[in-house]
Each structure stands twice: as structure tokens, then as C-alpha cells.
Design a protein that fits this description.
118 residues, mainly alpha, Four Helix Bundle (Hemerythrin (Met), subunit A), 84% helix
Length: 118
């Protein structure tokens, strides 16, 4: 059975984040806050875009997610990028799956940022 820490590391690889930010906790918090805002904005835009727009936005989110160690979001964004070339139904379903992955990441990010404030 996986521990909460192991599950959280699947959502956000904190070791990767630490390496990318050279262990600077302030920078980690700043990067997480930026990702949190960006992910929210990109999802809203995806829901209003056509296939080409969704593909480009998903590509952007994929890179950002990979950069902070949010592999689940990065993979869902990659799948959305590919689904954007398909039917509207496929694209919409992929955006919904991406939104679920983003929601998990954002919940963990909110928890981490809240812990940092205390």
C-alpha cells in the first residue's frame, strides 16, 4: 500500500522540483504558484478554443508540468495535445482528464504553499 507521501510524489515529484530549483525553497514556492495560475488559465482557454488552439495550449502546459515534476499532468497534457487533432468529443474528453490531473496537482500545490506559510 502506498503512503500519502508516495502518492503525492506521483502527482508532484518534489525531488525533481528541488533539482530544478537548486533546492531554493523560495524559488520552489514561486514556481509552484506560477504553475498553479498558469494551469488554471490554460484550462479555461482550452475549453474556449478550437482543436489547433487546444493543441498549442496543451503543449504549453505539458512543458510547464514536466518542468516542475508534475508527470501526471504532463502526460495528460500530451494526450490532450494529440486528441486535439481528433474529433470534438475526443478533445473534450481529453480536456476533462487533463482537468482532473491538474486539479490533483493544484490541490497538492495549495497544501505545499500553505505549509510553507506556517
Amino acid at each position: 500500500m502506498e503512503s500519502a507521501a508516495q502518492i503525492n510524489d506521483v502527482i508532484l515529484d518534489r525531488g525533481h522540483l528541488s533539482r530544478m530549483t537548486l533546492g531554493n525553497r523560495g524559488l520552489q514556492q514561486e514556481v509552484l504558484a506560477l504553475f498553479d495560475r498558469q494551469a488554471e488559465i490554460l484550462l479555461v482557454r482550452m475549453r474556449k478554443s478550437d482543436g489547433a488552439g487546444v493543441g498549442a495550449l496543451a503543449h504549453t502546459l505539458k512543458g510547464s508540468a514536466a518542468g516542475i515534476g508534475a508527470a501526471e499532468v504532463a502526460r495528460a497534457a500530451e494526450l490532450t495535445e494529440h486528441a486535439a487533432k481528433g474529433s470534438a468529443g475526443e478533445c473534450s474528453a481529453a480536456i476533462d482528464r487533463l482537468a482532473d490531473a491538474v486539479e490533483k496537482a493544484r490541490a497538492l500545490i495549495a497544501e505545499l504553499l500553505s505549509e510553507a506559510e506556517t
